[in-house]
């Protein structure tokens, strides 16, 4: 039995509320169970120096946790004067993942920065950030198209992410913290809406895992991404 009482292939409750930040080109609050992340997308009519005059747009991301997001206070990284290795790794993952769903020539020479701020953490914050970040990105692109700044939609596919793992000897979908903290195997799957893989992060936390277990986790991830895609579509249709 999972601590939450969920079935092995059952996601936590998912909701995505859009338009929560007035000044952002796109914004949403994504809730995956007790993990809540605010995602905002900001537009800039410039690109990093190495992309000038290339005709290519750029999508990047920043990630952070509010001090009260977990049971013990997280010190603000700005106070420490540097980002942790974990923060840098996660925000690079978010940026890579979102770029996989963007036709950069169609975006033109402009940058969209997706900021993901975790206001409450209960496992799966990077996955929620990617899933919600794509909604914020899509809203920002919609604003560009409505303004006539771009003619062709540069988004080629939704991008989604979900965690899976081996808990209690069984493959399970969408780990919360109670499971993630003791799971024998922990994996994150980033996919397109067509279920093509963008990135897979998997590691044996307490025990090695077999090929068939990896495939079982992939099957669960596809189930989870179907559910997330439906939530994204509902949010953007609202």
UniProtKB/TrEMBL annotation:
InterPro entries: ExoRNase_PH_dom1, ExoRNase_PH_dom2, ExoRNase_PH_dom2_sf, PNPase/RNase_PH_dom_sf, Ribosomal_Su5_D2-typ_SF, RNase_PH, RNase_PH_bac-type, RNase_PH_CS
GO BP term, example: tRNA processing
Catalysed reaction equations from the record: tRNA(n+1) + phosphate = tRNA(n) + a ribonucleoside 5'-diphosphate
Lipid metabolism in keyword set: no
Statement: the UniProt record of this protein carries the keyword tRNA-binding: yes
Key words of the record: Nucleotidyltransferase, RNA-binding, rRNA processing, Transferase, tRNA processing, tRNA-binding
SUPFAM superfamilies: Ribonuclease PH domain 2-like, Ribosomal protein S5 domain 2-like
E.C. code: 2.7.7.56
Principal EC category: transferase
Binding positions (phosphate): 86, 124-126
Family annotation (PROSITE patterns): RIBONUCLEASE_PH (PS01277)
Pfam families documented for this protein: RNase_PH (PF01138), RNase_PH_C (PF03725)
Single annotated GO MF: tRNA nucleotidyltransferase activity
Residue ranges constituting the Exoribonuclease phosphorolytic domain according to the UniProt record: 10-140, 158-222
Complex formation: Homohexameric ring arranged as a trimer of dimers.
Functional description taken from the UniProt entry: Phosphorolytic 3'-5' exoribonuclease that plays an important role in tRNA 3'-end maturation. Removes nucleotide residues following the 3'-CCA terminus of tRNAs; can also add nucleotides to the ends of RNA molecules by using nucleoside diphosphates as substrates, but this may not be physiologically important. Probably plays a role in initiation of 16S rRNA degradation (leading to ribosome degradation) during starvation.
Family: Belongs to the RNase PH family.
NCBIfam families in the cross-refs: RNasePH
Entry protein name: Ribonuclease PH
Organism name: Algicella marina
């Amino acid at each position: 039995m999972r601590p939450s009482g969920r079935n092995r292939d059952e996601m936590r409750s998912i909701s995505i509320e859009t338009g929560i930040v007035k000044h952002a080109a796109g914004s949403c609050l994504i809730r995956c169970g007790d993990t809540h992340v605010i995602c905002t997308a900001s537009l800039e009519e410039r690109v990093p120096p190495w992309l000038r005059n290339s005709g290519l747009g750029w999508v990047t991301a920043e990630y952070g946790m509010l001090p009260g997001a977990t049971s013990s206070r997280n010190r603000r990284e700005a106070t420490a004067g540097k980002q942790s290795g974990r923060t840098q790794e996660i925000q690079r993952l978010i940026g890579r993942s979102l770029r996989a769903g963007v036709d950069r020539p169609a975006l033109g020479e402009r940058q969209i920065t997706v900021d993901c701020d975790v206001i409450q953490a209960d496992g799966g914050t990077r996955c929620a950030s990617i899933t919600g970040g794509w909604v914020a990105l899509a809203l920002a692109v919609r604003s560009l198209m409505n303004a006539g700044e771009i003619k062709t939609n540069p988004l080629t596919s939704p991008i989604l992410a979900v965690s899976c793992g081996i808990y209690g000897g069984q493959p399970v979908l969408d780990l919360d913290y109670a499971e993630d903290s003791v799971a024998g195997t922990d994996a994150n799957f980033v996919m397109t809406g067509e279920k093509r893989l963008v990135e897979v992060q998997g590691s044996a936390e307490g025990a090695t895992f077999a090929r068939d277990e990896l495939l079982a986790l992939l099957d669960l991830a596809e189930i989870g991404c179907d559910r997330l895609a439906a939530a994204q579509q509902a949010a953007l249709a609202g």
